[in-house]
Specification:
298 residues, MetI-like fold, 0% strand, globular, MetI-like_sf, MetI-like, transport
Length: 298
């Protein structure tokens, strides 16, 4: 036991500098605030370029959407008065209605075609073990590396011999060719992440190849398939170069009609159509991402 009698009087009377749990918090020294301020300044410095890039990318879309509410007959920004006049004219125009119907039918046909062919092709390229698999993978994704105008010229010469120019069948085949690589690429990402032991477990329980593919493989590939379907729909809906050369007076899609309208009569109707297409794209993306995790594939 310590002998307290030997403690000097000065030591017994000195104040206790240890901080008790109930003592008030001491103010933060300037030396500890400085690194926190520097980190905050660093985050702001790195975030400003990213914010500038987002503003640069979104500003044209915002200008286009605001211009669609212009009350005058000229496409100007900022709008001179707010009105829904151009939305009414677009939705009541027979020409625009025909183009919307044609683009809608094309989107459905292209999505069904590319998802079916692209899913089977991607799964075979990832899981298959056959000679020339690398060459086939390169050929399947080759249209992504070729400028669209080159593809459009080739399709024009090819379809002229087959009598497919200015036909729905020609547009269907052309759009499917352009959109198919996107579906193959996204499904390949999901197929590469697929655990093969799940398929082997289903087979060991007595499921055949077809049943295993339909009940195990396809549900696991769903994010990639949905992402590919979205890409195919957006590609078909916004295709201009191929459609301009393959389509005709009876098969004018919405992008081709927008392109023609911009060339000959620049009024807010094209801004209204573009805003409707952007709104439809956002609704589809949010709805698909709500029920699946396809954003992980993107």
């Amino acid at each position: 036991m310590a002998d307290t009698s030997k403690v000097s009087p000065d030591a017994r009377t000195a104040p206790d500098t240890r901080t008790s749990p109930t003592s008030p918090a001491t103010p933060v020294a300037p030396a500890t605030r400085t690194p926190r301020a520097l980190r905050r300044a660093g985050r702001i410095a790195t975030g400003l370029p990213a914010a500038a890039v987002f503003v640069f990318l979104l500003a044209p879309l915002a200008v286009l959407a605001l211009s669609s509410f212009n009350a005058t007959s000229s496409l100007s920004f900022p709008p001179k008065g707010l009105s829904l006049r151009w939305y009414g004219e677009v939705l009541s125009s027979p020409d625009w209605q025909a183009s919307f119907r044609l683009s809608g039918v094309l989107v459905l046909l292209v999505v069904l075609t590319t998802v079916t062919i692209g899913t089977l092709a991607a799964y075979g390229l990832v899981r298959g073990n056959f000679p020339g698999r690398g060459v086939l993978s390169g050929l399947a994704l080759a249209p992504l590396m070729v400028p669209e105008i080159i593809i459009a010229l080739g399709l024009l010469y090819y379809f002229q011999g087959l009598g497919l120019v200015n036909t729905l069948s020609g547009l269907w085949l052309a759009h499917s060719l352009v959109a198919l690589p996107f579906v193959i690429r996204t499904v390949m990402v999901s197929a590469q992440a697929l655990d093969p032991t799940l398929e082997r477990a289903a087979a060991s329980l007595g499921a055949g190849r077809a049943r295993t593919f339909l009940t195990v493989t396809l549900p696991l590939l769903r994010p990639g398939i949905l992402a590919g379907a979205v890409f195919a729909a957006v590609t078909s809906l916004g295709e201009v170069a191929v459609s301009a050369l393959v389509s005709g007076s009876n098969t004018t899609t919405v992008p081709v009609r927008i392109f023609s309208a911009v060339q000959f009569q620049l009024d807010p109707s094209v801004a209204a159509v573009s805003t409707l297409l952007m709104l439809a794209s956002v609704v589809v993306l949010v709805a698909v991402d709500r029920f699946t995790n396809f954003s992980e594939v993107l």
